[in-house]
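Continuing the batch. This is chain 6 of the set; chains 1 through 5 are on the previous pages. Same settings as before, nothing changed between runs. Recording input and output for traceability.
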Amino acid sequence: MAKKDKLIERLKSRPRDFTFAEMETLLLSLGFKKSNKGKTSGSRVEFVHINLTIHIHKPHPQNTFHKYLINKYLINEIVKELERAGLI
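Output for chain 6:
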């Protein structure tokens, strides 16, 4: 099983510890382009696909390992959007 497939399965299980780095890797492997919208964007990151745009705020570290965890509600919304677009 490829890394992309493992990340898709992990995302679909809606884990509480899905990191920003994992999300970024997955979205880029699905053909999204990353845009920080210039130097004034702060923590806002935009991932753009042909007809789908996903906006994510890069979260602050949540634990001593400095993982940037994605909020559960955002994971649910991203899964819905990716499924609706037929990407996962």
